[in-house]
Write a structure and sequence with these properties.
By secondary structure, this protein is mainly α. The protein is about 85% helix and about 0% strand. The model has no long low-confidence stretch (mean pLDDT about 90).
């Protein structure tokens, strides 16, 4: 088996055996990574790379939004609204080629990721 195949198998196994809390953290970690790389690519004039990273970040936010149970807790509707705002902002950032707008989105996401991580650690 080749190295890329082994890596893909490892990733598939990691995802399929992860708890819901771990999956959520994996999504948030990848979202932050995409935003960092998208911002950096914009700053370096790498338009296609930036577009790929930002649209992948949008896909993750869309997944987070569609899987959010807005009836589950009082803060869920606000989180859903934040996800909607982030999607709109990232679309605008991508069109305007604005690393500042991507950074602002990352600044909103990182504390959420950290809070989810703390909650997961406290629960398990």
């Amino acid at each position: 088996m080749t190295a890329p195949n082994l890596r893909n198998r490892y990733l598939d196994d990691s995802i399929s055996t992860a708890s819901p809390a771990k999956l959520l953290l994996m999504l948030y970690d990848r979202l932050v990574l995409d935003l960092m790389q998208g911002e950096e690519a914009l700053r370096n004039g790498k338009r296609e790379e930036a577009h790929q990273r930002i649209t992948h970040a949008q896909d993750i936010i869309l997944e987070l939004r569609t899987t959010l149970h807005v009836d589950a807790w009082d803060g869920a509707p606000g989180l859903a609204n934040l996800y909607g705002f982030l999607l709109t902002e990232l679309i605008g950032a991508n069109i305007a080629r604005s690393p500042e707008r991507v950074a602002a989105c990352r600044d909103l996401i990182e504390p959420l990721r950290d809070a989810w991580r703390e909650a997961a650690l406290a629960a398990g």
